[in-house]
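Support request from a user on the community tier.

User writes: "When I paste my structure tokens into the form, the page sometimes reloads and wipes my input. The last time it worked, I copied everything first. Here is what I submitted, just in case something in the input itself triggers the reload:"
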């Protein structure tokens, strides 16, 4: 399978709300996906991620912008180029499986090859290989109604692989299966990506899914990409308060920066004392200091104290048992700090000392941000109706 590069430039799309007001589903979005890269578009409902994916597939018409797949321009609104979905040489996995109930599993997987006129013998070989790669070779003669939801998604995955187009688009494909199956399918998708090296664009609102699968994450909000980076970069050093809050759990301590610095770090005045923090924005005024729960630890009497850390004393307010660890909520003055701990001996009301490395703290301006607007929207113009099930796998 030959992977292909994806380039999106200046993608914009407007929709009209039910009250006739206009919203930008996509607002001048540009990004590139390198050959063999696994890019995850992550964001809440209404952020534009699915609209962007559908535009790449040719299922959504952009107002402005251009898209290249493997160096070939498939959409350029200014030049009036718009290559139909079936000629873009892509595969796609939907949330809803999109399997024909009257066809066997093998026939469903073979459909894109039949539509392209691939020889019957070659089709049979490629279908068998795709089914075996997806771990469902024994289901070839079953019908969709005879398999589980997890197996149905494996069928959809095999169908995406069989075309060998080098680009697979995933539109929240695991949201309809239970947690255990979702975990298994994530591992399967990651394994198949390593094995075949296809270029992937994967849409999800699930942070764990994004961190598990992505080689790069684009966090979206209100039609724009707010941050792009490796999972580690986006998680450990979010560039805005919005990204910090959206990607995983965070502790937040409000404070104020008056311009004082020491050793390259900003000195933030807070209710728990002065905190030396990496503060890239640099503007004086109200700020919020962020930290991840797993960055903190509860100190025992015998633990060595680190010169690179900050230690605070507080009272345990709550212990939330989550299986392999507990979230221990510690009141420190006016702040409540969550510590992710494996220590099961901690009790509510206990006085504890907690510690965090200075390098784990980061700050962003302000305290609160406006909530994400998820008001339903309706298309501004009547969309072109296509057979989504067939178009995306031809």
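"...and here is what came back when it finally went through:"
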């Amino acid at each position: 399978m030959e992977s292909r590069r994806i380039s999106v430039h200046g993608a914009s799309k407007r929709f009209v709300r039910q009250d006739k007001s206009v919203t930008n589903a996509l607002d001048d979005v540009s990004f590139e996906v390198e050959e063999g890269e696994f890019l995850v578009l992550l964001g809440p409902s209404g952020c534009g991620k699915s609209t962007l994916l559908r535009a790449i597939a040719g299922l959504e018409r952009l107002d402005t912008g251009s898209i290249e797949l493997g160096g070939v321009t498939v959409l350029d609104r200014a030049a009036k180029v718009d290559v139909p979905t079936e000629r873009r040489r892509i595969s796609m996995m939907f949330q809803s499986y999109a399997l024909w109930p009257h066809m066997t599993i093998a026939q469903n997987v073979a459909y894109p090859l039949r539509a392209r006129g691939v020889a019957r013998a070659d089709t049979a070989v490629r279908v068998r290989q795709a089914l075996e790669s997806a771990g469902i070779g024994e289901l070839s003669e079953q019908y969709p109604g005879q398999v589980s939801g997890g197996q149905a998604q494996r069928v959809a995955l095999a169908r995406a692989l069989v075309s060998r187009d080098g680009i697979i688009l995933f539109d929240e494909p695991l949201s309809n299966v239970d947690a255990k199956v979702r975990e298994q399918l994530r591992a399967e998708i990651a394994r198949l990506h390593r094995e075949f090296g296809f270029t992937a664009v994967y849409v999800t609102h699930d942070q764990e899914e994004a961190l598990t699968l992505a080689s790069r994450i684009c966090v979206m909000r209100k039609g724009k990409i707010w941050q792009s980076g490796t999972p580690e970069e986006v998680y450990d050093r979010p560039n805005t308060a919005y990204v910090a809050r959206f990607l995983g759990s965070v502790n937040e301590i409000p404070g104020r920066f008056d311009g004082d610095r020491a050793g390259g770090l900003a000195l933030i005045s807070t209710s728990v004392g002065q905190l030396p923090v990496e503060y890239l924005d640099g503007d004086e005024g109200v700020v919020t200091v962020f930290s991840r729960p797993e960055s903190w630890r509860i100190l025992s009497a015998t633990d060595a104290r680190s010169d690179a850390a900050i230690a605070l004393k507080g009272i345990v307010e709550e212990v939330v048992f989550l299986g392999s660890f507990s979230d221990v909520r510690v009141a420190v003055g006016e702040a409540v700090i969550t510590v992710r701990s494996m220590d099961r001996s901690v009790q509510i009301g206990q006085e504890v000392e907690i510690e965090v490395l200075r390098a784990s703290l980061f700050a962003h301006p302000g305290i609160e941000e406006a909530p994400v607007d998820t008001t339903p929207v309706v298309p501004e113009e009547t969309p072109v109706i296509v057979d989504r099930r067939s178009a995306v796998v031809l």
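Agent notes: The reload is a front-end session timeout and is unrelated to the input. The longest strand covers residues 309-321. Residues 179-196 form the longest helix (18 residues). Escalated to web team.
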